[in-house]
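Exercise 4. Each item below gives a protein and its sequence. For each, produce the structure-token representation.

Item: Transcriptional regulator, TetR family (Promicromonospora thailandica).
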Amino acid sequence: MEDTGEQAAPPRKRADARRNEQALLEAAAAVFVRSGVQAPVREIAAEAGVGMGTIYRHFPQRADLVIAVYRHQVEACAAAGPALLESAPTPHAALGRWVRLFVEFLVTKHGLAGAMRDDDAGFAALHGYFLDRLVPVCASLLDAAAAAGEIETDVSALNLMHGIGNLCIGADKDPGYDAGRLVDLLVAGLRRSAVG
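Answer:
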């Protein structure tokens, strides 16, 4: 067989393996929100309806699973922006719904730094990925709401996302702290200041 110098494409996963991986990512995200990233693997397996061996086959280390959940949720947030603009009654409503998804993502993401404490370069690369994927989505939602006259036009996506992130800090340490409610007030305030 002649060597053409081209790399062979990685083998595609079987459909059932892809389904198992998706179920694991969704289950792990739910468990991480409920119990944190240090939740027992058996809790994730039970949530996904798979055996523990299936988890270790897909994700040999806990950090592998945390990173995969992180990327999965970034992609879900990125895809939700355009879908919400099409389905929500107004761009401001779409922005509010997207921000709620973003808050849920931040809650899951909270333990990522701990899970990757020995991999500063890996964490920095994931943070860059997060910004590259989500800042443009947030900006498109803000632009649509501003074009509709619903919010002020001088709010940057990055500043809004920083504000949301700051409101979410510490939510895991105080069960009475409702970051989602505070973020809802922030988004509502964008509109009130424009109308006022």
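Check: The mean pLDDT is 83.
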